[in-house]
Amino acid sequence: MAQGAEWGTPEIVPKPPSDPIDNAAASAPADPLVALYLARREILLRFFAGRTGSWAAAEDLAQELYLKLSERPPGPEPENPGALLYRIALNLMLDSARGSARSAAREAEWRRLNRTQLGGEEVAEQAAADEAAASRQRLRHLIAAVAELPPQMQRAFRLHKLEGLSHAQTARAMGLSVKSVEKHVSAALKALTARLQP
Amino acid sequence: MAHDRRPIAGAPGPPMIRRTTAADERCEAAAEWVVRLAAPDLSEAEALAFDAWLAASGDNRAAYDAALAVWIEFGAEAPAVLAGLRAERGVRPRWGLRPRYAAIAAMGAAAAAAAAAVIVPALGPATVAQAYATAAGEHRSVTLADGTRIDLNAATRLTVAYRRHERDVTLAEGEAVFDVTHDLRRPFVIAAGDRAVRVVGTEFDVRRRAGQLSVSVARGAVEVVPAGEAPGEAFRLHPGQRLEHAEGAAQARIALIAPDEALSWRSGRLVYRGEPLAQVVADLNAQFRKPIRIADPALAAEPISGVLVLDDETAVVRRLALLVSAHTVPSDGGVILQRNETPPKR
After folding, report:
1. Residue range B312-331, pLDDT digits in tens
2. ipTM field
3. What is the CATH number of domain A148-196?
């Protein structure tokens, strides 16, 4: 597997991996899965971020995955470590006992992204006036970009991403197949990305 | 070549011939991956294909990061973007038409809406408010005419009145989970003390007990606005957020929650993450007939974290006592929670 030596951490990722992983990296781990994890951590982070729609949740899951791998009892060398790594990663996400870790992750994400005004204790998070104006401007761009999408794309994107319906629920609401919904949503995302990137 | 791989293996492209650049294809693949990764049925083979695609080139990673950043931004701003879209378009568009027909369709819809506005008042039935209530320990599930479902927690009173332009619910006391059927023309509004909760189509929990209001959103978007002249700001909540407000106060605070936990009372579980003992006892007193009281205010303020399974009252109270190192003393028909005299030392 190719390891991208040239890539840096994306700017949105808040902080470098936490200590246990760095330590482990320093003393070359014996378990091939842990070694593979360390080599592919940046890709796994992107995998989890795509899966959850949140960098903070992705950091959490990557950490959980690391713990799970390092707690594995020693056994025979796996035939296909890459496949096993992703199988464990996918199962990790089905595990329902991660509520508290996730709510902490959501909180971090929300703190980072939310710039709207809030009452009570969260007022401290309020942005400075010029920053608030910039974020209102950005919000107008987001709204305009969605409004310009062709109708089917717009509706699929709106139902799935903005109103939080699953792919299957969106498909039922639109009378389409799940695959068609995924196509509309990804076409919408492609158009939005092109429109909103500098 | 690795960078040509797509999430949907072998999916045929559009029938027409398109001239696309490598960069364009890359952006398309990136967007497809972001969407595909979010699918619940993502396979191990797809995960490996994604890994290979991402590892294949720095350009792939840059394209993926750009699409993912936009995806996450829309996730965080979903309620505000939805509100903006609604404000921009007073008329519900007809979907499924090609863009150049959209303007005509919108006019058609406007005409239809105008016609409906003429007809409906003449035919609209007189509004009758329907009241629903549960006793202590009783749960009840109600399905309304439009398919909206309300699960009432114990000791709850609410009334429902469906009007021409609005579906009104008044929560007098208690807690309920609302799974609201979409109807853009008839917003769903819940009056709860000095706040109104406005909805388009979503699932959320509203709780009003002892002057404390909380609104927890599991799906969709909800607006909470001061009712009438009540002071305070309006808030838009999205999934995973909870608004907490003391009636009469101008302020509200927003907390982050796991939606499943907020709605878990329906399956006989109460989940707490640092809520004061007083709130836990208030919840239990709604579920059980024998009242529980707390001996002193310091104990009442003690934060509780844990899951209480609502089976037998005696067992529940015993487990609760263990959480706060307290014991129970029987007292006229109920129990009193008292702090243990000497905290266990080791």
Report:
1. 888 888 888 887 888 888 88
2. 0.74
3. 1.10.10
